[in-house]
Amino acid sequence: xxxxxxxxxxxxxxxxxxxxxxxxxxxxxxxxxxxxxxxxxxxxxxxxxxxxxxxxxxxxxxxxxxxxxxxxxxxxxxxxxxxxxxxxxxxxxxxxxxxxxxxxxxxxxxxxxxxxxxxxxxxxxxxxxxxxxxxxxxxxxxxxxxxxxxxxxxxxxxxxxxxxxxxxxxxxxxxxxxxxxxxx
Length: 184
Description:
Layout: H1 7-28, H2 41-51, E1 57-61, H3 69-79, E2 83-87, H4 96-120, H5 127-143, H6 145-153, H7 157-181
Antiparallel strand pairs: 1-2
């Protein structure tokens, strides 16, 4: 079955996931607690400003290939603190660009869900079979990369599990939409 024939579930599932994401972040708020304020935020901002780091940029400390080689870095890791710093460029605050990018991301995920599901199932597949394939591929797209962040970059497992739960919600919304609108 051509993926283009699934344009309606692709677009509608992206819209539904966008709404679902808004509910998760603005009403349920269970992921919000993972983003804690930094005591002395103004001092940290001043130090980062003085370092004249490339913005936007991502930084890890200690840097394993930094001055002194791997042994010096390992000593720094043992001493702590260790972390990842993500910097955005200064800009007037606006949710519009981020919401637009999120919607495009949901469309891309839905497109690949359609691609996988259309190759696994044909026209007339039962709702639950469509839900199963679309849900599994949607969950992989929305969630599994987060585990790498926990393993390699220190994202907390609590935060990862909460985000995986959100990914499951988004996958179920996607799967339900595909099951509902699957060609009969």
